[in-house]
Records
---
Amino acid sequence: MSAPEPAAVLLERFSAHLSGELGRSPHTVRGYLADLTSLVEALDARGRTPADLDVPLVRAWLSSARAAGASRSTIARRVAAVRALTRYLHREGVLATDPGPRLSTPRQQRGLPSVLDEEQAATALEGPTPTTPVELRRHAVVELLYATGIRVAELCALDTADIDRSRDTVRVLGKGDKERTVPVGAPALDALDAWTARGRPEFVSATPVGALFLGARGGRLGVRQAREDVHAHLRAAGVDSGPHGLRHSAATHLLNGGADLRSVQEFLGHSSPRSTQIYTHVSVERLRSAYQQAHPRA
């Protein structure tokens, strides 16, 4: 019977499998190999090899990482790396069975999203009157993000034809190519009118495109530039937030104003109500704060 391959050789072949067969990015491959090198070192300290991998050995390694202060996201990444390795080793005949499916991934703790209060939102939107084409675009981008709660990538994908002025709505293509229709308020529509009348024509190139927002070369506005537009506009207003903060704020302000959770779920384009429920926690925290300040027996 031939001797088992050295761990370093196994990892080298596994690296080629990740990048070649699975098409994983260089960043992912580096991260997996760093984690698995740590695993191999832990196995070696116990006089074991990758051919001995089982659930107790992996759990002991993960427990050591937790004790050393590793975050939940780090543990989750390590579990993903081990699952990929054990699946590969089982396929190659190194492991008789694959212990990977029996390894549980720690649930990620979801923090409360950072949101603006209504006064901060008003400050962010009621700044100086925009005059230059770039200022008009920035103002329209911020107004539309807050008015609709759409993602910045969804905003960049909008075409002029997606704005329905007869119904004051915008047609959005969200994750999974799911289309939804979102209402738009008058301030955002006014900002869009100013942009399309006095800003957008300045960006139109010799080969015009149907994109609602255009970049410096006349093509569709990129996500990176849209983010920069938002941060620049909000910084000028003295507000520390970004595109996702505007989305969080829009959802929270809807709930605070009496909208039901199902409506907010459709507004945000969430496929599951679980993704939307985090916003109820924000409202509850504010209610608790108000209660503690105002109730005589708080």
Note: The chain has a mean pLDDT of 86.
---
Amino acid sequence: MAAALAACAQTVPRPTPITQAPTLGPAAPTRPDDGVLRVGLLLPLSGGSASLGEAMQRAAQMAVFDTGTQVELLPRDTGDNPATAGEAARSVIAQGADIILGPLFSKSVSPVAQQARSAGINVVAFSTDTAQAGGNVFLLSFLPQQAVDRIVGYGASQGMRRFALLAPRSAYGQIVSRALTEAAVKYNVEAPVVELYDSKLSDPTELQQKLQATQVDAVIVADVGNRLSVVAPMLGYSGITAKLMGTGQWDDPQVSRQSYLAGAWYAAPDPTRRADFETRYAQQFGGPPPRLATLAYDAVALTASLASQPAGGNPFNTTALQDPNGFVGIDGIFRFGPNGLVQRGLAVLEAQPTGPTVVESAPDSFSGAAF
């Protein structure tokens, strides 16, 4: 374990098995038996998210170079259309892909998974839609449920017993609300106070009055952008002394460095781990990478790590991907559960205008009770 973690602290970070991967199964007979490991990479390279897809592709190419493992990357454009994503999956499968990384959008996962399932290969997608996981689909993403669980668990360890949630009345707000309710049961704290507000909220007076009438130790604000700038400052000037907390959405310099969030806590990967990657990306491409770029990097580096294991056949089978000891990437430790969902070791961070500081470090193994 120590050797694997040390390897990830070197100049070239890459997901490394914390222990040896299990014995690997045979490759699907439809793929060419030429010794070349092919990795399909499905990203939106056209349409409204093209800039994000292009950045993720650059990060993936960096991972191929950094790891030095002989895998052939097969990039394809999914656009914004599920049908296009399905065609992209068929294309890389026809070229002998041993695994597919992507797509990014929830609506595109199903057609890609169907094609991959017929070919007997797995999919590591970047969607946060947990309903898409399972079978041959693994989600390597930042799940809001895990960030909520982490911050509530830490708050409970600091003596906090009463949590409130302020979130938009949206699918995301409902996900965070359910996650908070589950975390309250898990950590044996009181049932949370949940206030969902309209997506066009401009006046927080009603929320302020409700919170002032409720005794809570912490208020989680699950939002970003203009609504966050309306809701979060309200807590301070209304005399509410509860600790301000956030979700993984705050793991973005444009959000976490806002002065009105100073001192607030949120859960996310430790940013110091990805600092080298971000610096090198900016040097090569003239600007900082989007936050999701690390997903593509770690996904490709994961395949490189599994490809280097001494075993025959397709090294990207389900048993290898579900190694319970997990892997270490530039976003910290992660592993895939039997349900296909990623589990991550997250740090507790404190937002500051100069950048976040670590309040509690991320775990370095999955042996703790929290997992």
Note: The longest strand covers residues 37-43.
---
Amino acid sequence: MDLDVFVTAHRAEWDRLDTLLRRRRLTGAEADELVTLYQRTATHLSQIQSSAPDPQLTGRLSQLVARARSAVTGTRRASWRDVTHFLTYGFPAAVYCARHWWVPTALLSTLVAALLGWWIGAHPEVQSSIAAPDELREMTRPGGGYETYYSSHPAASFAAQVWTNNAQAAALCLVLGVFLGLPVIWVLFTNLLNLGIGIGLMSSAGRLDTFLGLVLPHGLLELTAVFVAAGTGLRLGWTLIDPGPRTRRTALAEEGRAAVGMAIGLALVLFISGVIEGFVTPSGLPTWARIAIGITAELAFLAYVYVLGGRAARAGATGDVDATERSATVPTAA
């Protein structure tokens, strides 16, 4: 392609498209002309990109095509209908589609936490490396650190703090997954280590039932959300290694958009977990009642994922945004 000849032949069309885009009002004929020029300019951009790429000209035409697309398709404002669609269709479908990653992650993580707890509880020398004996007794005694932790601050502020910390951990798992998933394993292991230490120290003091009574009400839902985030982050990292039939760029874009939506949805799940931890865990309810609330919340989330999410996934949803919401692409020659 002779770029100078090409520009000379089509410059008038580009200038005309730019003129139409600057007008506030268009007649019917001008609107039809704008659509036609938009389609032609998009084709011109594709031809230049594939045959004679010129950075300056490509940049100008890209901006022109983007402006024209916005004028042709219009802009759409988010509404409560979008929120409802996300909560009942997009988010549960994303979690359901990622189940082959987060379910094994949850099972393996639970096993690791149990093994860590057994190892710490069965080896006094390991416990002594964590803290001095007096400090350990202070943490594990009735009314000690592990019990007062959940009632040491006002319920509302404590719930907000817990929600913020957990949401940050989940977001880290989702974002850092792009680095081949390795940072995700570290974030997950850090959480499991803290859980394992609590299990080990309280079991060595003969108070494991008390510890589980404090952790299970909120921990079931909280850990499930963390496992979902970790599994999704690992899947995102694996996409870089094996994108499947898609190009690596396309696969990463699709999985990345789904992960962003997952972060928003999991923040809502962790908010519910934080409310339970702030108001239910330190409450005066019997242990069985507090655990029952935690189990109910966990079962409700799993039903939400497998019923609504499974239905949406079978209808074709993956958690990615709708095709109409994605960036426009133009064909390029191979």
Note: Residues 208-241 form the longest helix (34 residues).
